[in-house]
Amino acid sequence: MRLLLICLFLCLVGSGAIQAAPTTLPVDTADSDISISDHFRLAPSLTTRTLWTIVSSSVLTIFACTYSAIHPNIPSPKDSYTGIQIRRLGIIIMALIAPELMVTWAMRQLFSANQVTKQFEKSKYPNVRLDWKSGDNTWTQAHSLFLLMGGFMLYVDGKPYLTLQPDHILKLIRQGCIDVPTLTADQIQDKSKGNAISKGLVMLQVAWFIMQLVTRVIYPLEITQLEVGTLAFAVLNFLTYAAWWNKPLDVECPHPVYWKSTNSRPEDHIKCVCASMIIPLLIISVLV
Description:
- This protein has 288 residues and is mainly alpha-helical.
- It has helices at residues 2-15, 36-42, 44-47, 51-69, 81-97, 99-122, 141-148, 166-174, 185-190, 196-218, 225-243, 278-287, and strands spanning 152-156, 159-163, 255-258.
- It has a three-stranded mixed beta sheet, with no helix packed on it.
- A hairpin with a 2-residue loop joins β1 (152-156) and β2 (159-163).
- It is elongated, with a radius of gyration of 24 Å.
């Protein structure tokens, strides 16, 4: 919703911009059958652009690609609001500096989700499906992606204890320490702050920008370096969107999984990862 309001504001402000001198690419009439006047007659709106039109269109596209394409993992219950926003700002800065890292992160997470789903199928986990379709108590790829983003939190004595990993869930279920998570794919998507409409509007903005550049190439008309760079952002974020299309957006609270064993403690079955190793492991998982 915030993204839609910002886009609407920029469109309203941009509609009141004052027209500047035409920015056209000289055409050699000796080598072309279409003269300069024909270009103006066929596409008068494309030959006259303001500096604000070029900058606002490019910045809006980059913002839409960067801000909405980022699907961060679920924060820890101990994280503060300020810490969560600082972490998100850091991810946005990284996406602006090196957008290819975001594509690598998204593709790696998607491939890992497929491997986790197959791992659950081989372990004879009850009701496993290899697609995204929902079902009661059925483990799907949506569950695997939700698990990899920290979606299942182990609670001991009513308090959060550990973010569960794929091996943790399978091992603890076999040993009778926890129950099988009763969470459907529809409930996972219900936690998301985005849906197909919001994502589709962003894709429409990017597609409109690309169509403008293609039109200018066909006529031909001048294209700025800023627009070329924005096109690169759009292509990379198309890949990010495709990989994270079914990943929930901005989920703040994980699904609780309660410890039910009275004869043992979690540390007797699983090993906790030291907090000081979390950030290095995340960096390695993105770069490798």
